[in-house]
Amino acid sequence: MAALQRVSPSPEKGSLRRQVMTLAWPAVIENLLVMSVGIADTAMVGLLGAAFLAGVELANRLVNLGVAIFAAVLIGTTALVARSTGANDKKTANEAMRQALVLVALIGVPLLFLGTLYAEDCVTFMMVMQESPDPAVIEAGTVYLQITIPFLLFALLMMTINSCLRGAGDTRTPMVITGVSNVINIVGNYILIYGAGPVPAMGIAGAAWATNIARLVGALLVFKAVYGERGVLSLRLNERFRFNPEVIRRIVRVGIPAAVEQGLMRSAQLVYGMIVAGLDTVSIAAHAVALTAESISFMPGAGFSLAATTLVGQSLGAGDPDRAEQSGYESGKMATLVMSGMGILFFVFPRFFVGLFSRDPEVIDLAAQCLRIVAISQPALAWVMTLAGGLRGVGDTRWVMLITVLGFWGVRVTIAYILATTTD
Known about the structure:
Elements (H helix, E strand, L loop, with lengths): L15 H31 L3 H19 L2 H16 L3 H28 L1 H8 L8 H14 L3 H16 L4 H23 L9 H23 L18 H33 L3 H37 L3 H28 L1 H5 L6 H15 L2 H17 L3 H25 L2
Helix pairs in contact: 1-8, 1-11, 2-6, 2-10, 2-11, 3-4, 3-7, 3-10, 3-11, 4-7, 5-6, 6-9, 7-9, 8-9, 10-16, 11-12, 11-14, 11-15, 12-14, 12-15
């Protein structure tokens, strides 16, 4: 794994566009790989039926809300590692990673225990707006949550180290590890969902266990990547750990507004999902399919957002604020080019994209309508994502938080509720 490590591109040399691409393309590929697991899960679980697909969709929304709690650590640590790397302060970057891992574990263990214990109640709550919730959807979501939540700790630890590596400018190692993890997930899905040879078909439980195995392997690989002194960051497990109040303070100062932002965004998505769940099973499944198809566009956007965070942070650490500003705008322009192109394809060929993830004619018809609507938003979404990434690199996450509140709660949830309750 050491051969995969790369020293981050200098924020003071070379073409800015080339530097953005150097950081962005592995992140884009990594996000596409992450998306591929979502695609595989959606496609393979979708073959079991709309109720199973809807159950997994609700379960994943709950998991996403839980992950938002850790945004304070992940985003704050990424910004601190990027700034320290730009200032050639590897000691602080390594210390930030150590502190972050312990914080994630301390917060994660009790929360995951409670999540496993109350999984059925959480899924049932998601269906509260339905007059007659589908028991099959609740059962599928509960089974999936109860199996996957305990192993979510491995995913959180992997996310923490990957965030640190990206902040240090190494986006290739997370890409490769994510690729390996995803291959395991997809192969595991095929074997465990449908059965193969002596392995019996496990249905929705098989999808959950495939996810668990992939998370465990990914966590082991990313720990191996940073263990010792071989790469841009290093972690020694035999060193005595002490809480570092100064490093934690710096992480929290940036991370708390980011955590509030992520919490508000995920909770808005949760309420939005509940509004969708209040319609019917086909609507839930169609929403999941349309969102998965749209991720083909916004996952690359997330890669350019990461490039903005890293280059802005490293440029400020190197004392070059002009370069930091240019990095944010260059990332935004490149993201807009890619996502606008995808938006055009979504608008012209919506049935092709949604047809990749479902064979149900009703689901395809409704999902195609949804995808054509969101296609129009892709250019604006590109700028929102990349400029937010740049602000995180600066350490100013308050504006991102305020924009999130306005966009998700003031517009998305409000309009969705009005339209869902007043139109047929």
